[in-house]
Write a structure and sequence with these properties.
This protein is 46% helix and 16% strand. By secondary structure, it is of the alpha/beta class.
Length: 257
């Protein structure tokens, strides 16, 4: 038997049609899990689903969903459960870069939109995922994994990124609260504080930001997307059952530099 075989398990990855989310979805699919990806771009959803199905493992479902809209979350969760019958691991990965405003230039609209996607979106996804996991536990099948894509910016300062940093710091708090509250159902909650990975979000940043990062990361390189596959599988597997409430930096040592 393979050490990290996820056959028979189902994982959801919000924002799973590109970047970090798609990398994690690849690992989950390769390990045999059924995988649902939610995203706002139908074309990217279809391309990602086609790629995952080509891996020849578990079933793949792609759904249009904006996590800033609870009605869309509820509809997508119902469709996911209708297709798979269960949900074992929920990766709250969908996020945006933020408004990029300096502190004196913060606007309520920009601030609220960043937190609506990055923090409230994750909380509402967890709301509907945990309802299913709790009902399953009460029926005699306990367990579930909640994994959030947070950021090293939640514990470090970066210029013109207060809304993004605050949204991810709040996500860390959500993680600890969920871990404590849901432990009675054997549901774990953890956050991964990613450092510098080359994604669509970082591609939009000032090139000087990448240069600054390259100098500060002790391992002197961006994160490895292939490495995200195994990370996702570990946190979706029974081998992480005794890890909960943790906010783990995955950053090449950036947070200690």
């Amino acid at each position: 038997m393979e050490l990290f075989d996820l056959s028979g398990r189902v994982a959801l990855v919000t924002g799973g049609n590109g970047g970090i989310g798609l990398a994690m979805a690849r690992g989950l699919a390769k390990a045999g899990a059924g995988v649902a990806i939610w995203g706002r771009n139908a074309h990217k959803n279809a391309a990602a689903a086609e790629e995952l199905r080509a891996l020849g493992k578990g079933e793949v479902l792609a759904l249009d969903c904006d996590v800033a809209d609870e009605a869309a979350i509820e509809e997508a969760m119902a469709a996911t459960l209708d297709a798979f019958g269960r949900l074992d691991a929920c990766f709250a990965n969908a996020g945006i870069a933020g408004a990029g405003a300096a502190i004196p230039d913060i606007t309520p609209k920009g601030w609220d939109h960043t937190l609506a996607v990055n923090t409230r979106g994750a909380a509402l996804v967890y709301k509907h995922a945990s309802r299913h996991m709790i009902a399953r536990a009460e029926a005699g099948d306990p367990g579930g994994k909640l994994i959030a894509t947070s950021s090293g910016q939640s514990i470090m300062g970066v210029n013109r990124s207060s809304d993004y940093a605050a949204s991810k710091a709040a996500l860390n708090g959500l993680t600890r609260a969920a871990a404590y509250e849901l432990a009675r159902y054997q549901i774990t909650a953890n956050a991964l504080l990613f450092g510098y990975y080359e994604t669509e979000i970082t591609a939009k940043a000032n090139p000087r930001f990448a240069e600054w990062m390259a100098k500060r990361i002790p391992l002197r390189r961006p994160g490895d997307h292939a490495g995200l596959e195994g990370l996702a599988v570990f946190f979706a597997s029974p081998h992480s059952d005794y890890i909960t409430g943790q906010c783990l930096p995955v950053d090449g040592g950036l947070c200690i530099s």
